[in-house]
Specification:
Number of helices: 16
Shape: globular
CATH superfamily of the largest domain: Dihydrodipicolinate Reductase, domain 2
CATH class of the largest domain: Alpha Beta
Strand order of the largest sheet: 14-13-12-11-7-10-9-8-15
Structural class: alpha/beta
Number of domains: 2
Strand content: 15-25%
Number of strands: 15
Distance between the termini: 31 Å
CATH architecture of the largest domain: 2-Layer Sandwich
């Protein structure tokens, strides 16, 4: 199967923080891949901007090094790289001063799509937005892309939204969450709403429970100082996991339209019941001494805070107060330094009301597993007869769709989430981006939970690096006579 590539209109994309880590790792290599795929038309320009002094040639060297570092040799060739680099420019600017802005105004054209990527700290968003308008750079249909964190709590999220709203309409603001750009996340909507098979079963009558797991093998590393003021709840649950939960639980929108989809997601967040204290488990990874295995620092060592009570792991059970999901628990789990790297949504269906084969056959539930990483795809486990004579013996088998296998060689090279989302910005499609009221509703649900455990003085449970998390997280499901899906190494 050959995927179709639909070019976008010519554009000027300004990347503020254009020499930063995100630009180097994701934005520039991703844009190169879109150029090679034929999606970026000639006449488009990518303009890096940061405080450091650099000229166009220097920025092209920077981008060339980034492409070489983050794309293997099979995904680049010297001629294509050279042609792509011809589209790159650089203008030094000072986000909080006046230096460089007149030069940037001369570079950005008014007769093409204008997009401005704020790959900088949120504290600079307002300064950038104000100067873009004061210097007449951003036109009435310009688009801005802002990275998380979208505030640290409800109050700061409202302040941030208000700051952006002073200069840009909500239809111009693209709050990016790279999880929503993953192929499998979008296929979740296709599976639900483009097939008659699943939607009639997608409710509390047929679904026993839902598990959402985002596990990482790395620790907080160089992000320790930032992470210690955030924690897993703010860093992952409030945004990534919340968005995945919404896509699973939402009602069918009246059409595949940005506001129609986001209206339904907002209803899910507002229907979330507060999680009880006993339904939340917080953990913090311990270090390794090096005996029999490589030495690893503990969370408190990585964060350089021996008395830290910030969680590097969280597991919780939540319920949605609506007709579709009444009584069906959703279990959320995410953490650092776990056994394996995996992002998975598991829809666990109920057992058949009556098994004609008897209990001794070890009947298992049907599970639809949606893998976001590392191997994007979907698996549906079903029961079949075990081959061979000797009676009716049942065994579980997977109906497995790996995108790399199902779509062939052309489909195996799936675009990175950032590639897809940046192209959606150029198209003006906000479906996979968060709206301001979504962000505020998520914080309104999250804030009281954080305030409650801080008031109680709760401390995270310790867990070994390379494990599945604290024992209390296992008990969260065991007491409901369920168990977590295995995190594989």
């Amino acid at each position: 199967m050959v995927s179709r590539v639909i070019p976008v209109d010519p554009f000027d994309l300004v990347v503020f923080g254009g020499t930063g880590d995100l630009a180097r790792r994701k934005i520039l290599p991703g844009l190169y891949r879109r150029y090679v795929a034929g999606q970026i038309p000639e006449g488009s320009r990518i303009i890096g901007s940061a405080r450091g002094d650099m000229d166009d040639a220097g920025y092209r060297d920077f981008a060339s090094e980034a492409i070489s570092e983050f794309l293997d040799g099979t995904k680049r060739d010297p001629q294509s790289v050279a042609r792509f680099l011809d589209h790159l420019y650089y203008v030094p600017t000072d986000a909080r001063g006046e230096n460089g802005w007149p030069d940037l105004a001369k570079r950005v054209r008014a007769d093409v799509v204008q997009a401005f990527y704020f790959s900088v700290a949120p504290s600079l968003f307002g300064d950038l937005a104000e100067r873009l308008h004061r210097h007449g750079i951003a036109g009435p249909e310009a688009r801005i892309v802002v990275e998380k964190p979208f505030g640290r709590d409800l109050e700061t999220a409202k302040e941030l939204n208000a700051t952006l709203a002073e200069h840009f309409d909500e239809s111009q603001i693209y709050r990016i969450d790279h999880y929503l750009g993953k192929e499998t996340v979008q296929n979740l909507m296709a599976v639900r709403f483009a097939n008659i098979l699943f939607e009639p079963l997608w409710n509390a009558r047929h679904v026993d429970h839902v598990q959402i797991t985002v596990a990482e093998t790395v620790g907080v590393g160089g992000r320790g100082a930032y992470y210690d003021t955030s924690g897993a709840m703010r860093d992952m649950v409030q945004n990534h996991l919340m968005q995945l939960l919404c896509l699973i639980a939402m009602e069918p929108p009246y059409r595949f339209d940005p506001d129609a989809v986001r209206d339904e997601k907002l209803k899910v967040i507002r229907a979330l019941l507060p999680a009880a204290p006993e339904d939340i488990v917080r953990g913090q990874y311990r270090g390794r001494t090096g005996k029999g295995s490589p030495k690893q620092a503990s969370y408190s060592e990585d964060a350089e805070n021996p008395s830290s009570t910030t969680e590097s792991f969280i597991a919780m059970k939540v319920h949605i107060a609506n007709w579709r999901w009444k009584g069906t628990p959703f279990y959320l789990r995410t953490g650092k330094r776990l056994r394996g790297r995996a992002s998975e949504i598991a829809i666990v269906f109920k057992e058949v009301p009556h098994s004609i084969f008897g209990d001794e056959e070890g009947w298992r539930e049907n599970v639809l597993s949606i893998r976001l990483q590392p191997d994007e795809g979907m698996t549906l486990s079903v029961m079949i007869k075990e081959p061979g004579p000797g009676g009716m013996r049942l065994t579980e088998v997977p109906l497995d769709m790996s995108f790399a296998e199902a779509l062939g060689e052309d489909g195996a090279d799936i675009p990175d989430a950032y590639e897809r989302l940046i192209m959606d910005v150029i198209r003006g499609n906000q479906t996979l981006f968060m709206r301001g009221d979504e962000v505020e509703a998520a914080w309104a649900w999250t804030d009281p939970l954080i305030a409650a455990w801080e008031a109680r003085g709760d401390k995270p449970k310790g867990y070994d690096a390379g494990s599945s998390g604290p024992e209390d997280a296992l008990m969260l499901l065991h007491r409901d006579e369920r168990r977590w899906r295995e995190i594989r190494e």
